[in-house]
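Minimal example, chain plus adenosine monophosphate.
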Amino acid sequence: MTLRIYNTLTRTKEDFKPLDPKNVRMYVCGPTVYDFAHIGNARPVIVFDVLYRLLRHLYGVDHVKYVRNITDVDDKINARALERFPGVPLNEAIRKVTETTANQFFADAKALGCLEPDVQPRATEHIAGMVDMISVLINKGNAYVAATNDGGEVLFDVGSMPDYGKLSGRKLEDQQAGARVAVEAHKKNPADFVLWKLSSAEEPGWDSPWGRGRPGWHIECSVMSKASFGEVFDIHGGGLDLIFPHHENEIAQSRCAHGTKVMANYWMHNGFLQVEGQKMSKSLGNFVTISELLDIWPGDVLRAVMLQTHYRVPIDWTEAKCREANTELHNWASVLEGYWSLQTGNPIEIEELIEVLSDDLNSPEAFTVLRKYFYAATSEGHAKTLRFTKACRTLGFSKLGEPGLFDMGVSGSNVGQEALHKVAEIAQGLRATAANVSISSALSRYGDVLSKFEDDGFRVKIAEGGFVKVVGSDFEHTHKVERLVANRLEARAAKDWKESDRIRDELSAMGITIKDNKDGTTTWEVKR
Ligand code: AMP
Ligand code: ZN
């Protein structure tokens, strides 16, 4: 099977030919860790996870290396640290901000069903490499030191690179027109960008031949990709907004420092995400974090919504889409129950799925194939269900073995509609927290609400996977329980153990335990 991918560098779909099929290398720009990641940030995380899985399928799990960095040096991080931890020494405050944010990001990615990349380097671990690369660039005449009002900078000299701008298709002359030259008087060319910036005594910094300072953003990725992969590698990915200036400048730095024709052979960019038809922004109040959505929806639902739009097309994120995806996964999970934990090794063919994914990661088509596999599983049984299981796993779904998870309703016994409605409001949050984090977190987060329900005579139970069940004490269904108990006694008298067990299970599902007494009577109670 030939993998074809759209290469931003050539603006065409090309056959993918790795430099070394035994060592396929993919680098994706990761988050700047100063705040919760939003649902837009989840797009590259999910899209490149699917590509990683596909590459592993095509080249073997041991022959693919995926690197996604953590940008933990940035002026936005410094600003956030000062704001959130006033009075704490800056370096310590920065560590607090970056540690908690990075950990939150890892937890989000895991709940979205994403495999961990092979390496997740942090910029702060690579400062020495950055100083080295900047020195090489200065020695080769591609960078220069410039004095500024607030200290000084080392700048990349874009004029020193004849084909600067190839990735984004921007010509240097176009960029000069309209540039605010007066403000940038220390630059040889307005497009020159910062490699190293001197820090004031209060700002974080590292020693360097040009004085104590901090790196620019672009140099980080040139150095981290080189450290993991060497000078040239296969795929470099990220969101559309990174084409210019970030990726353009990464290419300039790496190619000039190493004297190579390319930095990476294939450049892939995901399109943008907007929310309910509008650009996501804090001021519009429609800024949604991954973590907030994971409080409502299982990670698999978010993954399904993301992948039903092709990665290069803009996506409009809506609640309606989440609801639809949830319903579909609910149906799928009902078929996959009992199969999810089974081995689905090599002999099971998922050729059609691999074929559509190999066409520039056509994930919407992958859903068409999955639906076909689903219908075959419902009508043709075992072998087709195994195939469907393998296909769902290949796309990265992780919780389809838990049917209760996608059940939007609340099941209840001995409770009236009103109580169910009351609980339904919190059930969604309980369910998602239980599934995405853990049952104990769900209980601790909703502990107060739950104990209030208990005071009203209800108990809310969460099963594995987050299925929410309410048991009440107003016994409006008592007669149903009594009838089932009587039916069971009749079945036992007729030695119909199968039916007797079935009724016991039905009662158990209603939250009722029964006890067969020595004198032949059966008593029952609401489970505690
Ligand atoms: P940042 O932390 O802003 O550097 O972004 C991390 C990644 O998320 C980058 O690959 C961005 O291109 C991507 N990204 C940010 N916002 C969006 C969005 N609204 N839609 C899609 N991708 C985005
Ligand atoms: Zn980058």
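The chain has a mean pLDDT of 89. The pocket of zinc ion (ligand 2) is lined by residues 29, 221, 246, 250 (CB under 6 Å).
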